[in-house]
Specification:
- The chain is α/β, with parallel strands linked by helices and 541 residues long.
- It is 32% helix and 17% strand.
- It has 18 helices and 21 strands.
- Strands 1, 2, 3, 4, 5, 18, 19, 20 and 21 form a nine-stranded mixed sheet that branches. Strands 9-10-11-12-13-17 form a six-stranded parallel sheet, with helices on both faces. The chain has a three-stranded parallel sheet with strand order 6-7-8, with no helix packed on it.
- α5 crosses α6, α7 packs across α8 and α16 (437-452) packs antiparallel against α17 (458-465).
- The chain is globular and about 80 Å long.
- The two termini are 30 Å apart.
Length: 541
């Protein structure tokens, strides 16, 4: 036996297919699963390490299809908050990727959208990433614990061709974007990802999206989307996504499916019915979600997207005429109901990502409380906080229905994702509170919704975290426990696995995941990170 062989004995095997669990042993040899057999069938005499997994579940490593670890992996390759959840592969790229640095995308490190401080050394490296693959290979070579892969960010692609300008691209600009998309697919992108509520993605019309997706389709990739609306225009946003899939002839994946805002919660049954109708008529559309009744994004998302045109968001906020236009547009819009679309209006908006010392006292208070203390209404308060901070201000929005969550969880075309970065609380706490999904998404599903509420089976939940994601992405040798597959493995206690992070105390690691292997190398041992960095750049097969 090679020195790297590990035998996991007496485990309850959940293989990632959705099939019923069974007792058995796994033999890991180098970076692969060498054998799966009934208990005791694999000789242990010459195995380097023998692990008694009695009472524990062994399953494939979780694949996060919506990770935001682009910057955090440059700070800390261990990806602690994800590894301790059982995540072994991070798939990034919603809206923004630092590469390729071509066309008009010459300054990827625009501080107005980036929440983490990056070293000068990394900034210098980023300037040289003229190909999409340069980024992922460089980060993998520097050392990361999880495997890493990505979609090409649609906002980055738009920036390549047209910068932050509104309007349709010229023929030359569109051709540059098509060529850049093709090169990214050749480098290993899983497809293209647009977040259509954020500029410059939001400046992209349906026809432009279709033209880009036709390129993706030629490479058998995916269109993955944060839809143009998840609230008042939810149905219209969904129809646009379905239209793009049909016209460009490619599969559609919907990020964090939700009906956002109490006034829109009743729309979820119809949304589900429309997706299932589209599937019944042959359109390959699926979705993912996180198991929390609150979303997280920038406070800046409360303002119209045109305020960021030409890259002048913060300059525009200093213009009194712009401010007057914002007030008129928002407060005169019947759909706005003169309040943010959350539980309790401005009381359901929790800004947490403050960096300036003078704003630190506001952490832990909601927007209504902050506005009252400042003697302002919520809109003026929002604008002035953004002006003060000079960045988007990470914010939690209490906008999702728990009833809808419980309806969505068991759906066969739903997968799970964090919509968060992998961090270490030792340094991330200095950046302020965050959404608890960064620490607890997968254990929350397995502990709360599987063990406690029994809304779905253990096998189904694991499938939605592993095999279903791998199959969607075209990762043919990951996501399942099969002989010859890469040894991305999680060993957890189904009796204790739980999330600990809360909205009030977000920087808390989950519990119950005992051991994690990535490419056959143990990155978590008895709940403690080993420091190993065996992650690889993964591509669509």
């Amino acid at each position: 036996m090679p020195e790297t062989s590990t035998l996991i004995r007496n485990a309850r095997i959940v293989d990632g297919t959705g099939n019923p669990w069974q007792y058995g042993d796994l033999l890991l040899n180098s970076d692969r699963i060498q054998a799966i057999a009934p208990p005791g069938a694999i000789p242990a005499a010459s195995v380097t390490e023998l692990i008694d997994a009695s009472g524990l579940v062994v399953c494939p490593g979780f694949i996060d299809i919506q990770s935001h670890s682009i910057l955090s992996l440059m700070i800390d390759g261990r990806c602690l908050s994800k590894i301790t959840q059982g995540v072994t592969t991070e798939i990034m790229g919603e809206a923004w990727t630092p590469a390729p640095v071509v066309g008009r995308h010459t300054d990827p490190m625009d501080n107005s959208i980036l929440p983490m401080p990056i070293s000068d050394e990394w900034r210098e490296k980023i300037r040289g990433w003229t190909r999409f693959g340069d980024w992922l290979q460089t980060v993998a070579d520097a050392g990361v614990s999880p495997n890493i892969g990505s979609f090409l960010g649609g906002g980055t692609l738009r920036h390549v061709g047209k910068g932050m300008e509104m309007g349709r691209p010229s023929a030359e600009e569109l051709e540059l974007m098509r060529r850049t998309m093709a090169e990214a697919m050749e480098d290993g992108a899983f497809g293209v990802s647009y977040a259509l509520i954020y500029p410059p993605d939001s400046y992209t019309d349906t026809d432009e999206l279709v033209e880009i997706c036709k390129v993706v389709s030629r490479y058998n990739g995916l269109y993955i989307t944060h839809m143009r609306s998840e609230g008042a225009q939810l149905f219209e946003g969904l129809e646009e996504a379905l239209t793009i899939g049909r016209r460009a002839h490619l599969p559609v994946e919907i990020y964090h499916l939700k009906a956002s805002g109490a006034a829109n919660w009743h729309k979820m049954p119809s949304t589900i019915a429309r997706i299932e109708e589209a599937r019944a008529h042959g359109l390959d559309v699926t979705a993912d979600m996180y198991p929390y009744a609150a979303s997280g994004t920038g406070l800046s998302s409360l303002l119209p997207t045109w305020t960021a045109a030409d890259g002048s968001f913060f300059e525009n906020l200093e213009d009194q005429d712009v401010r007057t236009r914002i007030r008129k547009e928002i407060l005169d819009d019947p759909a706005s109901n003169v309040q943010p679309s959350t539980r309790g209006g401005a009381s359901g908006v929790l800004p947490v990502g403050f960096y300036k010392e003078e704003n630190q006292p506001y952490i832990g208070r909601n927007l209504a409380q902050i506005a009252a203390e400042r003697g302002q209404d919520w809109l003026d308060c929002t604008i002035d906080l953004l002006r003060s901070e000079g960045q988007r201000i990470g914010t939690i929005f209490l906008s999702i229905s728990e009833e809808n969550l419980r309806t969505q969880l068991p759906l066969p075309w739903i997968k799970f994702a964090t919509d968060a970065a992998g961090v270490d609380q030792a340094w991330a706490a200095e950046l302020g509170p965050t959404h608890p999904r960064a620490y607890g998404t997968y254990p929350r599903v397995l502990g709360h919704y599987v063990r406690e509420l029994r809304l779905l089976t253990l096998e189904d939940a694991v499938h939605k975290m592993t095999g279903a994601v791998a199959d969607r992405l075209g990762l043919r040798l990951r996501g399942h426990l099969r002989t010859g597959f890469y040894a991305d493995i999680v060993l957890f206690d189904p009796r204790t696995i739980s999330d600990r992070a809360t909205f009030a105390d977000s920087h808390q690691l989950s519990v119950g995941v005992q051991d994690v292997w990535v490419n056959g190398e143990r990155v978590l041992r008895n709940g403690e990170h080993t420091g190993a960095l065996p992650g690889r750049f993964v591509r669509r097969d």
